[in-house]
């Protein structure tokens, strides 16, 4: 497995990579969900590229950025075992040599759901993903469906800007109690982790969005939103308070009338 820190070095060697290229962009703290994406890429492509970069521009809360977990040594070992060929480890000065003057903004779906209480979040996400896709030039890029809104926006971005990459959505990998695997799960207290295990169950078993919201609140979670978009019920909650507060997202498929879908072209 090859590790590259310097993006100019990567740009010089990228044309020499032969065959199909799969790409998985991450912020590190890899878990089984990430590894499932890497294994899917390794199985379906000749070369698999992983990037690990904690993207500061998508954090609207500096405290949230400061406590984001970092496990680089373990990440690299896991990536190698998953079949990764190349790892990109850029820093802010390389990714944002322009000082973040140029930004990619979406004016509709990004303003809903997570965009409501995380201003600028998806501008940071879309900007960095476009940069990374341009750098890697993959045939396929793999994203987990846990962040359904992010997946949809990235897929639409690539279609809108005629980017020659297939955006592959991979199913959510869950813990035994149904909690979607997330790097943020590492930040939960023991009590918070026990409560988090009820998130998916309450989201999935409610008869409608309002009942899901009520159930989550009654369980002791702070609800950011519960909303069905397309055929997915999406939710975000905060578990814990103060420095121990952790924001989690999830989504589940639901049965809705075809003519009632708000976004007909969402996966």
| Count of discrete alpha- or pi-helical segments spanning 4 or more residues | 11
Q: What is the general shape?
A: globular
Query: Beta fraction of the residues?
Result: 15-25%
Order of helices and strands: EHEHEHHEHHHEHEHHHEEE
Average pLDDT, to the nearest integer? 95
Unreliable residue runs:
258-262
- Using the coordinates above, name the CATH class of the largest domain: Alpha Beta
* Main β-sheet, spatial strand arrangement: 1-4-3-2-5-6
The CATH topology assignment of the largest domain is Rossmann fold
- Rounded to the nearest angstrom, the distance between the terminal CA atoms is 33 Å
Kindly state the number of beta strands: 9
User: So, the CATH homologous superfamily of the largest domain?
Assistant: HUPs
- SS-based class: alpha/beta
